[in-house]
């Protein structure tokens, strides 16, 4: 009987966590994620990304060797930070590791918006943080599972970029969802590899995505902030 009760309680807690994260990472949550292309707009403008296949390859690199990987690591580090000083160190590292002015603005503005909204509806620390740091710290305060938080954060991150790609490229809704489905299958491995939150392993080799973000700063015609 106790086993059944424990299992039921664990299932309920997991369901509550899923619903909380679904709200936080929903397009309806006012962080303005739809306004950022993470340099994708510049990559399309110069012809580095031309179609759905290119978009999938580009986002695979972002996820596995670029900002997706590092955001998951920073989120885990913030989640595991046991003191305000430790969290402040993660915050500073996230800002320092932003590869360009627009990358810093992207994480800073979304993080500040996330923190402000979450503080109003749930309380907690109102200090603005870079986006993955803000989500990781909020998840820890709420007692949400780290693995689930990382995976749903990355899925929302990719979903936003697929949507951006659909606005920039001849990629239809069904094709976009197929791309997202294949990318989602890669998420658990990235989350598992970064779950320690060890900032000594922070690195990136998706250099072209960083260059695209830098090029966007001087792009004359744009529909995205980054």
Helix and strand arrangement:
Layout: H1 2-24, H2 40-45, H3 52-65, H4 67-80, H5 84-96, H6 101-122, H7 131-142, H8 146-168, H9 173-184, H10 187-194, H11 207-216
Describe this structure in words.
The chain is mostly helical. The protein has eleven helices and no strands. The chain has a single domain (36-216), classed as Urease accessory protein UreF, CATH 1.10.4190.
Summarize the structure.
By secondary structure, the protein is an all-alpha fold. The protein has helices at 2-24, 40-45, 52-65, 67-80, 84-96, 101-122, 131-142, 146-168, 173-184, 187-194, 207-216.
Largest sheet: none
**What average pLDDT do the residues reach?**
93
The CATH class turns out to be: Mainly Alpha
Number of domains: 1
Separation of termini? 55 Å
Name some characteristics of this structure.
disordered N terminus, single chain, Urease accessory protein UreF, 226 residues, mainly alpha, globular
């Amino acid at each position: 009987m106790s086993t059944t009760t424990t299992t039921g309680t664990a299932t309920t807690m997991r369901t509550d966590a899923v619903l909380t994260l679904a709200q936080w990472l929903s397009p309806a949550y006012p962080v303005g994620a739809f306004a950022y292309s993470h340099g994708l707009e510049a990559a399309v403008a110069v012809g580095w990304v031309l179609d759905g296949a290119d978009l999938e390859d580009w986002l695979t690199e972002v996820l596995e060797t670029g900002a997706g990987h590092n955001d998951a690591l920073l989120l885990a580090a913030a989640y595991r930070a046991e003191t305000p000083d430790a969290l402040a160190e993660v915050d500073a590292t996230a800002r320092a590791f932003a590869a360009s002015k627009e990358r810093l603005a992207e994480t800073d503005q979304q993080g500040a918006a996330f923190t402000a909204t979450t503080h109003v509806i749930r309380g907690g620390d109102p200090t603005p943080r870079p986006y993955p740091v803000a989500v990781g710290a909020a998840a820890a305060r709420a007692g949400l599972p780290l693995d689930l938080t990382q995976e749903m954060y990355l899925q929302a991150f990719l979903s936003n970029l697929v949507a951006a790609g659909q606005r920039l490229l001849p990629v239809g809704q069904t094709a976009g969802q197929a791309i997202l489905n294949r990318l989602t299958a890669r998420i658990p491995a990235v989350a598992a590899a970064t779950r320690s939150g060890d900032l000594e392993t922070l690195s990136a080799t998706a250099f072209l995505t960083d260059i695209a973000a830098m090029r966007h700063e001087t792009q004359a015609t744009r529909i995205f902030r980054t």
